[in-house]
Amino acid sequence: MKKLCAALLTMALILSLVPAVFAEGTPEPITLTVFRGDPGDQPTEDNKIYKLIEEKFGVKFNFSFLTGDLDETLGIKIVGKDYPDLFDGGNSADLIINGGALINLLDYVSPEKTPRLWAHIEPQKARLIEKDANGNDVLYIIPNYGLADGDQIANSVGGPAFFIQKQVLEWDNYPQIKTADEYFDLLERFLDANPTDENGTPYTGFAILCEDWRHFCLINPVQHLMGRPNDGEVLIDVNDPDFHTETFIDKPYAKAYYKKLNDAYHAGLIDRNTFTMTFDQYIAALSNGTVLGMFDQAWDFGTATSALLDAQKYDRTYAALGLVYDEEDIEGVEMPSADWKIEEHYLNGSLPNVRRGFGISTTCPCPERIVAMWEEMMSDEWQLIFNWGIEGEDYYIDDEGRLQMTREQYNQTQDAAWKLANKAEAFTQSSPKKQGYILNDIQVGDKVVKAGNCWEVANQPEIVFGLMNDYDKEFLAGYGYQKFADFVNPPIELAPYGEAWQIDYTPVNTAHDNFLKVQDIRLPELIMCDESEFDAKWDAFVSEIKPYADEFGAYMQEAVVKEAHKVLDNQ
Amino acid sequence: MTSVPKDFGGKAAAKKNKTGFFRQLGKQWQLALMSVPMLLYVFLFNYFPLWGWRNAFLDIANERGTLIPFLSGQTPAWYGFKNFTNLFSANAITFQETLRNTIAMSLINLVLGTVSAIILAVLLNEVRNRKFKRTVQTVTYLPHFLSMIIVVGMAKIIFDSSDITPGPINELLLTSGLVKKGPNWLGEEKYFWWLVGVINVWKEVGWGTIIYISAMTGIDPCLYEAASIDGAGRFQRILHVTLPGIRSTFMILLIMNIGHLLDTGFEIQYLLKSSGTMHVAYTVDLYVMEYGTQTLDIGLGTAAGIFKSLVAIILLTGANFIAKRLGEDSLL
Predict the structure, then answer these.
(1) Are strands A86-88 and A358-360 parallel, antiparallel or unpaired?
(2) Interface of A with B (CB under 8 A)
(3) Per-residue pLDDT reduced to its tens digit, B198-252
(4) Cα A204 from Cα A290, distance rounded (Å)
(5) Which 3-state string (H, E, C) describes A255-324?
């Protein structure tokens, strides 16, 4: 009996060792906790991409998504040291970095250990690698977006612009709208001629969303009218060797825009409930197709665009216009510099999405394994799977080696429920990824994907133009344009400091908060006030905001120079 | 009501003999044991968090860059009462404003809420048809269980002040010709407090009546009979029997509510505020969230919290003192 027991025990021991010996191909299974700093949906249990990941890497994910206020959620996690393994701080990653929640990836990422990841970040390493308090090189987050291969692709305007319903432009026989005056004038003329849509619902001329952080629709336009791409709340002179930086909202040149909005309000273009509207109400109004124009960023109202397309209201979707001040607006007004020239630039050079994406938390038990997995995932084969899916199922390769989708295949990529079962977006959106053009041929089964295709489905020319609806094709033909990005100038070279909205302003949090709050309160007042009161109210606004603007502006000036020199000195 | 059974330890018993307390405790050890979980609960959730009050006296975020040491566990520097003085220094929304808003909205809620609850309770008390009474009661207290975000969402639709597509209220006002231009309910400061009051009444009125109705059922029916024999009509019976009958309940609720005067809440204001109404919408709680939590100036947030507690204690003892003077049962 004893012997039998011993024999059994030995057997059991040996058997338990066997998997360890043969298991090199399939590593020990592990479940990683993942936090996403934005709202999202759980992927389905049998999601095919996560299944592939599990088979190859033995890694499962346990996702949690943002449900409440981001800063509060992160604050609670930091104070409680309750970190997920993969930690995406969303727009407030500065909090978790400053709170010491993330490890330095440079301990694991190097040209020798992870050649692919290194090649990915190398061209922009001057922007990505920071110095910590002790002067050591640190990299907490490999950007989720903005490290693209090849020339920059710009098919459409994905960011800020003045948007206008295509039917308005069509109605006026495809005019060239280049200034704010022309824009509001066109809206007014259209509204006079067409007060309601075909169902008798009245049109709203111009909507201004200002709920919570989306108040950029109210406070950001001036910098663009002055000819700069998005730098957040400051205007920067890139031709100045010292990068003169100032808050623009309190400057004389900002007054012209809000005066125009005041005029537009009294002309009936702006509905007063625009200032009490929630984001949901705003999207609902846009989706109805009764809002003629607004300043926004294209990604912000994407759901409305989809709804309009679903309803086949093609002429109610929006075209992006790059508006600037005309001479008259700024005549005799003090400019940021003596030789300031206004030239339209809404599209900026591509830049890495610094400090956005997954970091690995200090409590993660296996950082090395995650980095190794990312390294493997940066291979062309995995990137093709993440972006395009499974060959034959989700896309096909034509005889010329181009990536193609049938209409059906494309449609399902637009279906949220399908995506939860067939795409790994909850993971890939915040992971390092390849963007831009595919640089090398990729062997997929017995076919070859030729270099020159686009990594992202949305950028692939065949997809963009093949799927454009007939209305859009006709509309572009009316202008003689090839693509919607032709409405604005091509991207300019990225300034050395990047884009100033990315700069961390934690040290002047309180001043910045007050700076925004005064704008939130006073700008709607300015827009709705009686014309005779406007000047006095403007002066009152400027003097109220001045202390906060000065503190925030001074901090940003310093930070912009510092940021610019990181790159200039590294070159 | 006022007589306490001897064994349960009235004040007099404890005063008489100092060793009596422990003897009594020994006698009632089962009762004492039963109260331990509650004592633990109170200690853990009400007293233990007071340790966090020290944050109000530390320099956590006001000096540039000192945020990091706090989060990494280093002790920030002693800051004295500076957080309290900072509290009253200028921000875009001042703390004084939030105090004013909190008290104003609380008072409006208190008055509107109490008056409407008493009126509804009295009316229900007079209804003889039990089915009708039950239905009304149920219908009026159901909104209590709705979450605030739904209630405010509904209010925003009902009070939508758009010029182009007005909500039901403005539509009614406009079509009836009462006004030429609908009031900007959601966007103007002067309506905000009242809107909050109205929404609160709608949501809580049924719930508020429950306690008054139960107090009314406790009134001796003989009093009503006697009153009607003396020739009192229905209104006189309400005035001279029902209302005096619920007076002590009313006073106790009033004292308790005054203690919560600065707790006017957060949800409704947070959801209903917009750019035009921020100066009247911010309550102390919103202020603590904005300048304490979101900008991570935890010291300032704690200072505001302490200030709020102190004011609440003063209000509560004050109300209790006045109630005592008026010859009512006091709560403390």
Answers:
(1) antiparallel
(2) 69, 71-72, 75, 78-79, 95, 98-100, 201-202, 204, 210-211, 215, 268, 271-273, 275-276, 278, 281, 506-510, 513-515, 517-518, 520-521, 523-525, 547-548
(3) 999 999 999 989 999 999 999 999 999 999 999 999 999 999 999 999 988 898 8
(4) 6
(5) HHHHHHHHHHHHCCCCCHHHHCCCHHHHHHHHHHCCEEEEEEEHHHHHHHHHHHHHCCCHHHCEEEECCE
Classify A162 as helix, strand or coil: strand
> Residue A415 class from Cβ within 10 Å (0-12 exposed, 13-18 middle, 19+ buried)?
exposed
Alpha-carbon distances, residue A372 vs A40, A115, A393, B64, B109 (angstroms):
26, 11, 28, 38, 60
Q: What element of type H or E holds A449?
A: strand A447-449
B97 touching A, CB under 8 A? no
> In whole numbers, what is the pLDDT of chain B averaged over residues?
84
Alpha helix positions (H), B64-219: 67-71, 82-87, 95-126, 130-141, 148-158, 168-175, 189-217
- Choose between A436 and A569: higher pLDDT: A436
Cα–Cα dist B92/B74, whole Å: 31
The whole-angstrom distance between B174's CA and the closest CA on chain A is: 16
The answer to whether the predicted template modeling score (pTM) of the entire model surpasses 0.80 is no
Q: Are A507 and B64 a contacting pair at CB < 8 A? A: yes
Of B154, B295, B298, which to mutate for an interface test with A (greatest number of A Cβ within 10 Å)? B295
At the top level of CATH, the class of A160-350+469-570 is alpha beta
Ordered domains of chain B (ranges, CATH): 1-39 (no CATH), 85-159+189-325 (1.10.3720.10)
Using alpha carbons only, how large is chain A's radius of gyration in Å? 26
Q: Please name the residue of chain A whose CA is at the shortest distance from the CA of residue B272.
A: A276
Sequence-ordered list of residues with C-beta below 8 angstroms from that of A204, at least 6 positions apart, any chain = A269, A270, A271, A274, A285, A290, A291, A292, B164
- Shortest CA distance from B280: residue in chain A: A521
Determine contact: B295 vs chain A, CB below 8 A. yes
Q: Which residues make Cβ contacts (< 8 Å) with residue A536, sequence separation at least 6?
A: none
Mean pLDDT check: name the lowest of A29-33, A68-72, A141-145, A452-456. Answer: A68-72
> Taking all residues of chain A, what is their mean pLDDT, rounded to a whole number?
91
Give the model confidence (pLDDT) of A198-239 as tens digits.
999 999 999 999 988 899 999 999 999 999 999 999 999 999
Name chain B contacts of A211, Cβ cutoff 8 Å: 274
Superfamily grouping for domain A26-102+104-139+353-459: Periplasmic binding protein-like II (3.40.190.10)
Q: Where in chain A is the domain with CATH 3.40.190.10?
A: 26-102+104-139+353-459, 160-350+469-570
The pLDDT value given to residue B69: 43
DSSP codes joined into one string, A105-157: GGGT--TTT-HHHHHHHGGGHHHH-EE-TTS-EE-----SS--EESSPP-SS-
Q: Which residue of A has its CA nearest to B297?
A: A510
Q: How far is B122 from chain A (nearest CA, A)?
A: 38
* Contact check, Cβ <8 Å, A518/B92: yes
From chain B residues 158-177, the ones with a CB under 8 A of any chain A CB are 160-165
The A318-321 sheet, strands edge to edge? A204-207, A291-297, A160-165, A318-321
